[in-house]
Design a protein that fits this description.
single chain, hpI Integrase, Chain A, DNA polymerase, domain 1, disordered N terminus
Length: 398
């Protein structure tokens, strides 16, 4: 093993990563140091952190100092000595609430239902508030302040790596919490939601959609995916869709009490009707378009499961969810020349701004734009009469 000349620095740092304390090792690449680190039990490389790390324990810290100390210049980050970086801030998956806290959560749910919020919203908000109350279990509700909300975000939301959309929902839940507990010192108006992430939706090409349906061998599964795509349904709308809402003669489906408590009509594709009739005669559902074994609504996770399998069989490597089919439906309508106002109506969007996202992923106008590279090559060919075609794959130097 070669000797290390001019000792390289290795910085040790302590962080909470994936709900556990980790000791991070940062250093400039060196074969000898890498071999020493690999000799440490439990040392692994993290693509996310871009460094080697192992569980943070006093024993592991001593081992690192013993193995690396004589060979390198160890730099101990202040976080290693910071005892405030502990796991007590990471909430367990199952909350243990007192009887008083349970009564409070029940009352909070009743308050949310009084605001006529949906079952899904009530469940989500009460779950977040349950986490918040459990996090501040050593404080009375009346003593909670905006700083307690900030600490909850810092220690729980960030540590759990929750998404921006979930963070926004938590703030909404705590705004309702502040209104429900007027004695507390949380100023609801002062709570700020993080800005929304502007992420373009994943969209399948028309060819990929057809491949997906062809590789879905189960008749029931194929009918489900075909209806989601051909009508642009949300998965919740498909699961709650009753047979009485399907009008085959008029080729229409009535989507009732959807998001924002809106009803709307969507179109049944002419090409979907033979598949629909075949499915209905084969499976004979009684109440819902798609039913489980006991006649109850189908499970969303089952749809996600067979969709993943069909994508694998079709060779589709994109991350596809049932909502991807809805995104594809809207984008393909736009590319086919359908007016954006009709698309908004078909999708059931409350605001046109929501529908406008599809203008960013549509190829209808983008394909008409010529790249400057194509224009430059065309200009060269026009100027050089002897060279009929200029190819980048060929060396242009003669």
């Amino acid at each position: 093993m070669k000797a290390v000349s001019d000792k390289i620095s290795v910085t040790l740092k302590k962080v909470v990563h994936k709900k556990s304390l980790r000791l991070l090792l940062y250093f400039k690449y060196d074969d000898v140091i890498l071999k020493l680190i690999r000799s440490l039990s439990g040392a692994t490389w993290s693509r996310t952190l871009r460094c080697w790390h192992l569980p943070f324990t006093d024993d592991n810290l001593r081992k690192v100092k013993h193995v690396l100390g004589p060979k390198v210049n160890l730099v101990i980050d202040n976080s290693v000595k910071d005892n405030s970086i502990v796991l007590k801030n990471v909430l367990p998956k199952k909350q243990v609430l007192t009887a008083t806290q349970k009564d409070f959560i029940k009352a909070y749910k009743k308050y949310l239902y009084g605001l006529r919020l949906s079952d899904s919203t009530v469940h989500t908000y009460s779950s977040f508030v349950m986490d918040f109350v459990s996090y501040n279990t050593d404080k009375a509700l009346s003593d909670l302040t905006n700083r307690d909300v900030e600490k909850f975000v810092e220690d729980v939301v960030v540590v759990r790596s929750l998404s921006i959309s979930t963070h926004r929902q938590i703030v909404s839940a705590l705004k309702h919490f502040a209104a429900f507990v007027p004695d507390c010192k949380i100023e609801g108006l002062a709570l700020k939601r993080p800005y929304k992430s502007t992420i373009l939706p994943t969209v399948l090409s028309k060819e990929e959609v057809i491949d997906l349906l062809r590789y879905t061998r189960n008749l029931k599964h194929r009918a489900v995916l075909a209806l989601i795509y051909s009508a642009g349904l949300r998965i919740s709308e498909l699961l709650s869709l009753k047979l009485e809402a399907i009008d085959i003669d008029r080729r229409q489906v009535i989507v009732r009490n959807s998001k924002h408590r809106k009803d709307r009509h969507v179109i049944l594709a002419q090409s979907f009707l033979p598949l629909l009739n075949n499915y209905l005669q084969t499976y004979n559902p009684q109440v819902y378009f798609v039913e489980g074994k006991t006649g109850k609504p189908y499970a969303a996770e089952s749809i996600r499961g067979f969709l993943r399998r069909s994508c694998k069989l079709a060779g589709i490597t994109k991350r596809v969810t049932p909502h991807t089919l809805r995104h594809s439906y809207a984008t393909h309508l736009l590319e086919n020349g359908t007016d954006i106002r009709y698309i908004q109506e078909l999708l059931g969007h409350a605001r046109p701004e929501t529908t406008m996202i599809y203008t960013h992923v549509s190829k209808m106008d983008l394909l008409r734009i010529e790249s400057p590279l194509d224009v430059a090559l065309k200009d060269i060919m026009k100027a050089d009469k002897n060279d009929k075609k200029v190819l980048l794959s060929r060396n242009l130097n003669r």
